[in-house]
Amino acid sequence: MMEAGRNRYGVGEDQVTPRCQTEIEVTHGVGLHARPSVTFTRLAKSFPCSIEIEVNGNNIWLNGKSIVKIMGARIRRGSLLRIRAEGTQAEEAITALKALVARDFDEGIKHGRTA
Amino acid sequence: MAERREFDGKSASPGQGIGPAHLFTFIAGEYVPREGSGEEMEELAKAIDRSVEALSELAARAGGESAEILEFQIEMLTDPSILEMVAERVAAGDGAALAWVGALDDYIERLEDAEDESPRTRAIDVIDIKNRVLGALTGKPVEDFPAGSVYVGTDLAPSLFLAHDWSSGGGIALAKGSEASHVAMLARARGVPMVVATGELEIAEGETLLVDGDAGKVVIDPIESEQPSRERESERDVALQPGPAAPELKAGDGSAIGLHANINDPREIAVIDRGAIDGIGLMRTEFLLSSSAAVADEEKQASLYRLILEWAGEKPVVIRMLDLGGDKQVQGVGGVSGENFMGLRGVRLLLARPELARVQARALLRANVTGNLRVLLPMVALASEVDEIRRIFKLERTYLARRGLTVAMPPIGIMVEVPATALMIDSFHNADFFSFGTNDLAQFLMAAARDNPTVSALHAEAEPAVLRLVRYVMRIARAMGKPVSICGDMAGEPASLPGLLSAGLRNFSVAPSQVGAVRAALAQQTAEHTGQAGG
């Protein structure tokens, strides 16, 4: 699913910005409500690349680092989430975010403060 | 000692008041579109910062579940997207608070619309955020002037009038203005002497000024003998003490007459004898909610409405939804074009800016669990406008009920102040009651703006035309089974009462200061009619 066109980050005419995209179904019980949204956007913000999400192929790409946008997207159990990243560490970001969704946002883990 | 100087004007509110002059230099109460909206956004950003700070403190002390909720709220508030949502509204001229509430309400509605199993869990935290920031935004003090002084200016903002402490006396002298303006109505309701159209007064700050609202003149540095005595003022106070229930009024045909009071602020109950009235026939809300922050504040509105409803007990209280536009502007409510009585005002504005209607509808729905509330819509021209407001009430009722709040749907009636509405009154089956607003009806029938002193003579001649229309509406309303009342200034004119009674009106709502005179006039009418019937 990953269409990674990666290049060395640098100056030049044929420079290609690293891009990466993935698709995953949300399996978490209540979808992206408050707590999973915090987890998701915090992780997204830890990457320097831009991250956008699209829900159920509606062709509306939202800023994946914005909790306001993510909450507003009303992502529920069964929603098909497309995540794309562009820029430095795009591939790492996609891998990490996809894994987080697959792990149900670590909701099962008893929450302690992590930082 | 300075020299005595006298200036003629027009009486806008009777009584005499004296005090040091307070010169107000800019024209207040006028909506000025903002060039830059930077200031409002900065204010909002600061309020958000303060909220985040408070939340962080709470989060540091809290643990587990509640800390997570607080952290979610902090994340939301620190997300730049939240300011982006508001920025557009501020750019359109909304004040920070109103723009904030409008944008967040829209957002919350989207969250609540979700057909998922727990819409409340999503929305409730956002509602919490909304209220926290609103709280941080509001509470800015209004620029007041010393109690007991006489206000001198071109015009007076209703918000300033209402925020001022008039209990120490004083008065109002306006260079321009009109006796039919809303501030004049407020002054009459509160018994504050007021003279308008004095022209520019050559007066220094603090110079003694006498406002003679009986003679319609002002006197700078009056001589001792013409100064109003203290006694008169205390007399006025005594007259406002609560008394026993007044005897029932009856029309010539034996039907009961209702006498109600018009107010602008629940605080006015301090000067109303509840025993002397049958209820509140009109509580305007545009003066009460005289800042965009107040317009946006659901909690504050609900508590103000509850105050009046509790005071009135079983007696009906008619609360009119925001009648902004025309000569009533609110600083920081964008999209309102000023100085046009026939523009986007009243219910038109409420529907054009539904966020205003939504906040008010919620506050009214929540307040309606006590007392006997009726909601009145201003400037209605079409039956579809009533349907649209009803739809907003129903929608908000659903949202509030889902949040577990107790709410009740009030009856919804309309102002009859647009001539077309009077002529087409049979099409308003969807309204629960009708209330004549004769001030607007008169100015529209006469095509004479009531804030324009050059045509005030025309305005005064509108009565026969208004009466014909009242008679027409009464006939049809009776057939429709709809209650009708009148809350315009005409009801407060004892000389106009015979005409209104013969047209079929039985419910009158007047300024608190006019209740006594109108009651006396109505009682006299009753006696005369009864006399005729008997003889």
Automatic annotation (TrEMBL), chain B:
Residues 227-238 have a biased composition (Basic and acidic residues). It comes from the Bacteria. Phosphoenolpyruvate binds at R284, R320, N439, D440, R450. Keywords: Cytoplasm, Kinase, Magnesium, Metal-binding, Phosphotransferase system, Sugar transport, Transferase, Transport. Residues 9-122 form the Phosphotransferase system enzyme I N-terminal domain. Its EC number is 2.7.3.9. One of its GO terms (biological process) is phosphoenolpyruvate-dependent sugar phosphotransferase system. Its cofactor is Mg(2+). Residues 224-252 are annotated as: Disordered. It is found in: Cytoplasm. It catalyses: L-histidyl-[protein] + phosphoenolpyruvate = N(pros)-phospho-L-histidyl-[protein] + pyruvate. GO terms for molecular function: kinase activity; metal ion binding; phosphoenolpyruvate-protein phosphotransferase activity. Mg(2+) binds at E417, D440. The active site is at H182 (tele-phosphohistidine intermediate), C487 (proton donor). GO terms for cellular component: cytoplasm. InterPro entries: PEP-util_enz_mobile_dom, PEP-utilizing_PTS_enzyme, PEP_util_C, PEP_util_CS, Phosphohistidine_dom_sf, PTS_EI, PTS_EI-like, PTS_EIN. Pfam families: PEP-utilisers_N, PEP-utilizers, PEP-utilizers_C. Belongs to the PEP-utilizing enzyme family. General (non sugar-specific) component of the phosphoenolpyruvate-dependent sugar phosphotransferase system (sugar PTS). This major carbohydrate active-transport system catalyzes the phosphorylation of incoming sugar substrates concomitantly with their translocation across the cell membrane. Enzyme I transfers the phosphoryl group from phosphoenolpyruvate (PEP) to the phosphoryl carrier protein (HPr). NCBIfam families: PTS_I_fam. This is Phosphoenolpyruvate-protein phosphotransferase. The lineage of its organism: Bacteria, Pseudomonadati, Pseudomonadota, Alphaproteobacteria, Hyphomicrobiales. The gene is ptsP.
